[in-house]
Every structure is written in C-alpha cells, then in structure tokens.
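Here's what a typical entry looks like (SMB domain-containing protein):
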Amino acid sequence: MIRSCLHVFGVCIVAFCLVTEGGSVSASCKTIGCGGHDPKSTCFCAPSCFSFDDCCDDYAEVCPEQTPTVKLGDVNMLITTDLHSWIEGRPHDAHLNASLAHVVSVLDHLRSIAYAQSRDVFFFDNGDINDGTGLSATAPDHVAFLSPVLQTVRYDALNIGNHELYQRNGHGIVEGPACPVVGLKESGYIASWEGRYLTSNVVWSSSHEPVGNRYTMIEGKFGTKLLVFGFLYNMHDHCDAVEVLDVEDVLASQWFKEAVQAHAQVCDGVVVLAHMDYRDELVDKIWTALRTGMGSSKPIQVVAGHSHRRGFRHIKAIRFYNVWPEVYEAGCKLDTVGFLSYSREGNRLRFELANISGNINQLAGAVNRSVSNFSTAAGARTAQAIQTARDKAGSDRVLGCAAQRYRLMTPPGKNSLWSFYMQEVLPETLLDSAKSQIAIVGTGAMTYDIFPGPVTIDDAYTASPYGNFWLKLEGIKGESLIKLMMELNHPTPWTQVVPSYVNSSAPIASSTYDLVFCDFDLDPIVERLQGMLGKHLEPKLYKPLLNTSSVLSAWFQQRPCSDESILL
C-alpha cells in the first residue's frame, strides 16, 4: 500500500493508494473525473497518487500534471531514494520516461541557477540502489552493472539501504555472491566516494569497522557546511557479511556524541539520510539526539526512504505550516525526484519542497528548460553509462511474446499476473506434478506488470526482480496447507486487492503434498508449519538452477514471437 500527501489548508492529508507498480485499471479518468477514484478504490485520478502508478492508465491524457515550482532557498537539496535499478526510464509507462541521466541534467541546471544567486545545491541518494529491473537481477551480485552508472553521478553523499544487505546465497545453500554490499566493496565502489558513502549503523561482521563512513562533512561552493549521517532502520534479516547496529545503541555511543559535539559550532546544518519510513519512530529518536547535541537553532533535516511513499511531517506537534518540515520522503524507483530548500526568516526556517515526477517534460520545466535544450554534457555521460550497462545485461534481448497484459495489482483471474504466474508459469517450468506439489509464494516477489507483445530480459526481470531460490518440504498434509494459507493471509484488510500469499492450486485436506516455496518466505512458512505439526522441519533445496525470476524467463522462451508481434 502506498500513501501520498494532499495539501489542504496547509495540512498534509495522507491518501491511501492501493496500487503500486503497473496499476490496476477498473475505470477511466474520463468517467470518474480528475481527483476521484473508482468504487473499489483500485484506480485513482488524483495528482498526488499519479507518480506511484496507481492512477488509471489514461490519467496523463485526461488529467495532465502541472510542473511543480522549485523555489530556491539558502540551502537546497536534490534527492533520489529507493532507485531499485529503475534508472533507465520506463518503456511501458510513457509518463515516467525520465532516466537518471535526466536527473543529472536537472542538477546541472539547478546549480547554474543557484550559483548565480550564490546559493548552494547538494545532491543525495538514500539507498536501495538494486533489486528492481534487469540491470540489477542479471548481475550475479545484483550491483555489478549498476555501480559504474552511479559512479558517473555526482552525489554529495549516499546512504546504504536494506537491499544492498540481503543474503543472496542462502548462507551457502546455493552458489554465488553472498551479499551485494560485498560486491560494492570489492569493486571499489564504496571507496570511490571518498568517505561520502555513509553507514552510521552498519559494520562488517568480521572487523566491526563501518562499511562506509559513519558521517561526513560536506561543503558547498559558497561555503555551506552540512554534517551528514546515514542511518538504516533496525534491520535483522541482513546478510552474514555485516551487522546492523540498532539505531538506539548508536545514538548512545561515544563516537556519535563526540561527532555531534565536535561539529556543533562549525556546521551550518545537519542532514540525516535515514533509510526508513518517514513516519518511523526511529526518525524521532535520531532527531531528538541531534537536537540535544546541536542546540535549539541548528537546522536538522531528515531525508527518509524505504516505504516508497511521498510524504513529509513535522517532528514536533505544533508548527506553523511550511516551517521546520524535519522529515521528507521522495517516492521510489525514479517516479519522484525530490527537491527541498530552507531559508532563515528571523528565528525560524522557511521550508519549500517539490515532488518532481520522473518525466522528462516535468524535470525540464522544473529548471525552466525545454526538452530540446535540457540535456547537459554530464547527463549525456550518464546516459552512455546506462546504455553500456544495458548492453552488458542483455536488457533488450527478446525472450518471447505475451498475448495480453498481466496486471500485478488485479484480483485473481484472467488478467492477474499472480494467476498467470502460479497457474501457468510454475506448473510448466518448476513443478514436477501439479497434483502432488503445491507452490506458495508471497506476493512481494513480483513488482511490475507484463505487457502484451515482445517480452525482453528486462521486462521479465522487472516483473520478477529478486531471483529467490526454491525450497521444498515433503509430505505435508493438505489440511495443514489449508490452515497455513489462512494464517499467512490473516488478517487481510478489505482494501487489499491481492492477498499476501498465493498458491498454485487448492489443496485437498485428505491428500499429501510436497510444498515448494522460495527462500524469502522461509521463516513465515516453516515457523507456522512447525507450530502446527509440533516438530522441526528442514527444507531441502529444490531445483537450484531455477529461481523466482528465471522461471518467468523460461516460460516466455517457450513462446516465440510471430513476425507481427515483433513489429509491435
């Protein structure tokens, strides 16, 4: 579920948006009107929801979006977060057509405008660079193709995210790189940022040394000095290579207190890159610890992420509107390029923000440019790096063809991606017997629609990006599987279009099955079954040459395109 902000009389109202990538369309903006939604609340026509792909397909034509106003302040920040390798522009979503190269061009133009006024502009990324498209999934460590692209982008500081820290090889169960962050270290990516890749609470498990730097001081062209930290939420399911320290413990540590004390008088403000939901209580704890050490007047801005939302809030309950907006989150997957600025007005700060949709026209308009004179030399270099990465990943290679569009967030049925995956793809490519085997998969495993016509490597891995391997439990009674599905999906909010878990077929209570599932779902499935059966269960590796992504690719490879389809 995605949330976004509507501004009514200066109040941030959170709108619940049910559809994430690849929206489910049950109505048209022509019939429900701009600003409305269909009766089932699966399709929205509100500008605040559009950048999250939960609006109707015809939103861009019926309800064109206005370019947001970018108001420069004394201190200005351009922000990306949760890119998840969506750095190329979306071929199946004409509105979100901007690439990371276009963001680089925005930075150039924004700095040109700001520098003419002697104002500084800083550029930040807030983590989760990988896991989302073929640029990530086709690399064994999920970062090898991405990192050279990001090294062409002039970020002032970067944070780490949870996706850089997931175990990829099941603690040695399957072959391959163990953890993306190891690849980032071994490739020299982390070192290339010269102390500006921040990991305030992530350390190497072998040495307990920080993965990156705990903090950094950056200085703009006109002398603005910002003290920057990079925190990750209290992540416990990380890979063996690292240890994620609880935020509370770091805030109480000696190094943190000394860093705050040493910089309190020399920095002009503090920025916290916090890879956590902007509403997370950890944000408040970080802000309070910094406020205690910095005094009452030092600007402290938290840049949030992880929840894939647009949103902001004030940490203190009573504030004047548009003053001291201490926490801001700028969407995900390049659907949003965030901008915020602040300026001193007496003893207060005036804050401005702009959510710029990942659209070339929107980005160009935000910096007073037309598309024809928008691209810069630095942007062109990043564009070339993206193309090089795509070539290495084989992104454009056609696997086969899809006869129709399969939608991620559509209830089970003919048009549902999940019905297609569970009832057609898995029985053909993974299961040996649909009668004696049942697959259960958590619906976080896929993230985007499959579109009609040619399906490329990138299309397949964008729909199913994580590449989780398969496990098997033998001899599970149907009655236990029925109960398991009920527990996994309870409670299901009435607003939830797709259940949290789906199965390939309905188990018969009196029958016995082999249960197939992916490693990401191991804990919720095995723990519940062990509780039901009263015994320890040890899953076995199942078909190690296949994973949650490759089965989809394999299915389409058996559906070659006709000449007419290739011409679409």
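Residues 398-566 form a domain with the 5'-nucleotidase;  domain 2 fold (CATH 3.90.780.10).

More examples are in the samples folder.
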